[in-house]
Amino acid sequence: MDKKELEKNVDDILERGMLAEFLPTKEEFRNKLLSGKKLKFYMGFDATAKSLHLGHAQGLMILEDFRRLGHEVIFLIGDFTGMIGDPSDKTSTRIRQTPEDVAENIKNWKEQIKNIASFDDKENPFQIKYNSEWLGKLNFAQVLELASNFTVQQMLERDMFDKRMKEGRPIYVHEFMYPLMQGYDSVAMDVDVELCGTDQIFNALAGRTLMQKLKNKDKLVIATKLIADEKTGILMSKSNGTGVFLNLDANNLFGAIMAQSDGMIKPLAVGCTRISLSEIEEMIKLENPRDAKVRLAWEIVKIYHGEEKAKEAQEYFVNTFSKKELPEDIAELTGGEGESLIDFIMKAGFATSKSDARRKIEQGGVSIDGEKIPVGELVLTKDKFNGKILKVGKINFVKIVFES
């Protein structure tokens, strides 16, 4: 790659609009990218969920961009820190994961991102590492030595800790240790650049501090934008029902994109596809935003499931939503006499929690045989519901059956 081509590729990444903050400066980062030196990048996520989501995918696609420039890139899986839990943006203590939970999550993740990360590249593969390799070997004296680089006052500056103190909620000592552990990841891998979400800057800067003190080396911190509606500023999130997970099948992934607000079209197209910026601008100028959303959904499904599945998912969506038709192959799910509808929705996989299922009902997104379910508890009985079709959201269907 000649100098002119390198400069163009670097500027394409920097100007695409996915990077929010550059510490210390954007200019210094750009100069390093143009220097010809091979840099070591990493981005890490704790293995606390069964599935990654599009927010994670955006960061990993950026990491892949830097790999294509010839840099060494590492996807760090926090199998050790995942058993403790990051307190970032948490106003209550996280439930700790078991080693078995973490191992299962890791297995799922590797399968989910195989189409966006070049693990099989022979010359410069997209690497995966696990922080248990070094954090699990630290003894207590070494942990105390790391802790001596920070003060309690620094930790208490974090918003979520301040909020808990004001509300009289507990802050556990192990939560103070989390930034130290994440910071030590940088030291153990001797990285040059850490990519992180804007919600992780505090932890990333802890790593920068440790790199300076223990390695006499300056680590750059590059924060990626969180995916948010460009009109309302509302973040894509599991808690508000807009999160899109990578373990969805092609049909449900297509439907999840179509269910996003119009203000999400550009952020998702920029961060989660390889569509050029000029094409994206043409997309958002279309008279009907739905047409742009169809293109967006097709592109995202193609990335994770292939072109053929993307075509099938688009046809499925048109038939089940646009034409108001029921799909031909509705799955059956056995209900229990007296089982709550909320539990049944969770069993069907149409909600992530009881509160999520309840929210879908309250928002009018649940119907049985075309009749919306009113707010309140409802129990299933064979005489009333056997053979009826439950619909949750726009494209989730299941036939309720009871054992004879």
The percentage helix is 40-55%
Distance between the ends:
69 Å
> Which whole number gives the mean pLDDT?
89
Strand order of the largest sheet: 1-6-5-2-3-4
Write down how many β-strands occur, each being a DSSP E stretch of 2 or more residues: 13
- Unreliable stretches (pLDDT < 50, length at least 5) are none
What name does CATH use for the topology of the largest domain?
Rossmann fold
The CATH class of the largest domain turns out to be: Alpha Beta
Specify the CATH architecture of the largest domain.
3-Layer(aba) Sandwich
Count of runs of 4 or more consecutive helical residues: 18
Main beta-sheet strand count, sense and barrel state:
6 strands, mixed
Please tell me about this protein's structure.
The protein has 404 residues and is of the alpha/beta class. The protein contains 18 helices and 13 strands. A six-stranded mixed sheet has the order 1-6-5-2-3-4, sandwiched between helices. It has a five-stranded mixed sheet with strand order 7-13-12-9-10. A two-stranded antiparallel ribbon has the order 8-11. The longest helix has 17 residues, at 173-189. Helix content is 46%, strand content 14%.
Provide a compact summary of the structure.
The chain is built from 18 helices and 13 strands.
Keywords:
46% helix; six-stranded mixed β-sheet; Structural Genomics Hypothetical 15.5 Kd Protein In mrcA-pckA Intergenic Region, Chain A; Tyrosyl-Transfer RNA Synthetase; Rossmann fold; 404 residues; five-stranded mixed β-sheet; alpha/beta; 14% strand; 3 domains
